[in-house]
Amino acid sequence: MFNNFFFIGLPYAALTVLLVGSIFRYYRLGFKVSSLSSQFLEGKELFYGSRPFHWGVIFLFFGHATAFLFPGSVLLWNSVPLRLIILEASALGFAFSALFGLLMLIQRRFKNRRLWAVTSKMDVFVYVMLLTQIISGMWVAFFVRWGSAWFASSLTPYLKSLFTFNPDVAVLAQMPLAVQIHIVSAFVFIGMIPFTRFIHFLVYPFAYLWRSYQLVIWNWDRKKIRTSRKLVNGVRSKNN
Amino acid sequence: MNIYRMKALLLFIGIFTFTIIFAGEGEDIFKKTCAACHTIGKGRLVGPDLKNVADKQSQEWLVSFIKSSTTKIKSGDAAALAIFEEYNRILMPDNNFTDAQIINVLNYISSGTGAEGQAATATVDILIETGADNVSQGAALFSGNERLTNGGAACTSCHKVRDERVFSSGTLAKDLSQTYELMGSAGIAGIVKNPPFPVMGAAYVNHPLTEDEVINLTAYLKSVSEQRIYQVPTDFSLSFVFLGLVVFMVIIMSSIIIYFNRKKLAVNHDLLSRASNVIN
Predict the structure, then answer these.
(1) What is the pLDDT of residue A228?
(2) Strand, coil or helix: what is A211?
(3) Nearest CB neighbour to B151, from listed A39, A41, A72
């Protein structure tokens, strides 16, 4: 019964909530389909958290997606033992990167009161989810080897059975607890996308990849503003 | 024809078809799931010979044992524990079949039709004509150095063995170093050909092994079982973590180098620093 709940009911519920919730959020709260940036409040530590975290997570996301969409190609790659090791060690390296980045981001947010002021309960939930996901994934990578191989050969049929509306949980029922936790938390993660900052997956800011940073230019004397007692300094703009 | 006779005939045809379909289901399930480890009247393999099993235990007991032998054993059931001990403490995997499906299988076993149909794998050793070549080919298949003909995953994806030649062993499934002692060649061949374990079954249902591959892998596992006390394989776990950390360092160094010319402080950093005594 629990297997049916976690590996059939939960995935369908999560995917439905993702679809309906994302559409709802887009139409009702269009400007909130993004992740609230805190770079303006703190930028130095953000670099050491955000870069390793996002590089790690993006690599791992596409790694999982490849094993799901092209299992044959992953099995072909893994058919040479050395290549299997290279793939697994790389994935573990990116997982270390994601974990390191996430821990940096968490300590940064908790330490800085200015950031804490713009932190919602759902942001804390996001950290808990990500920690669960990354740590269970690393546990699986180390103790339940070799994930890239058995994912492609045994879990991909389960995921395909979900998408063909003929779910078969026999494989999942036999998997170790760490794998089950990793999968359940992944589906909770998917279901929570519309209610959290995860929503920014759906709006890829590709232009950021090649855009240079934007410089804020003040067209008045900042020192004068700081010392001024007037509410509005200089010439009032005409567009607001 | 009288309308009542017509109805009776249709009812009979319906019941007959239903019975044939579900009897067929019992046979189908037995061949796909049970035959790797059990025979009907051909002797024991990995598990007991199931001939006359209905005379030994009640149907209720059999249904619950087949559904989850682990639960039955953990509950302390004396008969379940006795079977577990007698058959080398190898657990039968849990099954997701309905009561009706299991009863169909039991009916198929009781009908005796399976006894004639089942190949006599229990009495013929498939390794009689094998030699060192088969063992080395089996080792190559096991470790992934030679790809399986139908593109299935190499055994090391999930299994490990005590063999110095195999360094990339998986840890999802059982250590196979003693499998030959526990199951014999018939048991290994039966499981490899027709895996009763859902995870292994899903991996090979579309990538079945050829007869030669089954023989070579069985020969290799026999050799592992015989040679394992002379083998001192290196534990790869820590090297794996070390390699992961190397990749991690490369990622960190790359991100620092690639973004070296980034604007390291926020535009308003100085402004906020001055105000920090007040705000933070």
Answers:
(1) 60
(2) coil
(3) A72
